[in-house]
Amino acid sequence: MYYIYVLKNNNGKHYLGSCENLEVRLERHNQNSVRSTKNKGPFKLIYKEEFSTRTEARKRESCIKKHKSIKYFLKQIENNLTLSSSLV
To answer: I need a labelling partner for 17 at 20 to 30 A (CA). Which of 30, 35, 52, 81 fits?
Structure first.
């Protein structure tokens, strides 16, 4: 399986990425082994989506990065979840 994920640090900053093994990737972020997030953690996983291929995950990651911001994307997700649960 492949994933796209959103991490959040204690300062409220978000990071969006994709990977094959989410547990290992989160551990690497928190060990300062990822250049783009080095010394910016610790991070908590706040969102993930699962895909069967790397190509699908990368396309979704690219699509999300075209949004105004990750916060905008997360707000859209939150609104959709609220709408869905009100229909149940």
So the answer is: 81
Whether residue 45 has pLDDT greater than 70: yes
Yes or no: say if 57 and 4 are a contact pair by the CB < 8 Å rule.
yes
User: Token pair for residue 25?
Assistant: 């990737």
Q: pTM of the prediction?
A: 0.80
HSE of 38 in the Cβ direction (CA atoms, 13 Å)?
4
Ordered structural domains, the chain, with CATH: 2-87 (3.40.1440)
> Position of tokens 């990651």?
61
Distance between CA 46 and CA 54 in Å, rounded?
A: 21
